[in-house]
Amino acid sequence: MKDTKLLKGTLQTIILKLLSGTKRMYGYEMTQQVKLLTEGEFILTEGALYPALHKLEAEGLLDTAIEVVDGRARKYYALTVKGKKAQVSKMKDALTFVEKLQVILNTKPIVS
């Protein structure tokens, strides 16, 4: 996706949605899942992902746990109860936005 501003505006919703489908994930795993699901069209950079994760954690929407895997510390993220509620709300908002955007994009301009 060439316009990363569009992706950045939905990053929190994407993260919450990814975590709603699993018990927990770590950052790199999220980047790979998005790449796989979008067939490489959306690329989440670490520079965009980790600040969003830290913000969601600070807001109480994510819990974290650090585990050592293959000799390296890995930080896992999971939804809190508050995060699960926020995910449902953000998904409703995102779906409404996409629906209304499709209406606009599929409408011929009115010529006055």
The top level CATH class name: Mainly Alpha
Shape designation: elongated
Q: Helicity, in percent?
A: 55-70%
Task: Describe the sheet with the most strands.
Answer: 3 strands, antiparallel
Q: List SSEs in N-to-C order.
A: HHEHHEEH
Number of domains: 1
The total count of helices amounts to: 5
* Distance separating the two termini: 34 Å
Structural class: alpha+beta
CATH topology (level 3) name: Arc Repressor Mutant, subunit A
Total number of strands? 3
User: Mean of residue pLDDT?
Assistant: 90
What's the Cα radius of gyration?
Answer: 16 Å
CATH superfamily: Winged helix-like DNA-binding domain superfamily/Winged helix DNA-binding domain
CATH architecture: Orthogonal Bundle
Unreliable residue stretches: none
Report the sheet-strand fraction: 15-25%
How are the strands of the largest sheet arranged? Answer: 1-3-2
Pfam families: PadR
Protein name: Helix-turn-helix transcriptional regulator
Domain Transcription regulator PadR N-terminal: 15-86
Organism: Sphingobacterium paramultivorum
Which features does this protein show?
112 residues, alpha+beta, Arc Repressor Mutant, subunit A, three-stranded antiparallel sheet, 5 helices, 3 strands, elongated
Quick overview:
The protein is of the alpha+beta class.
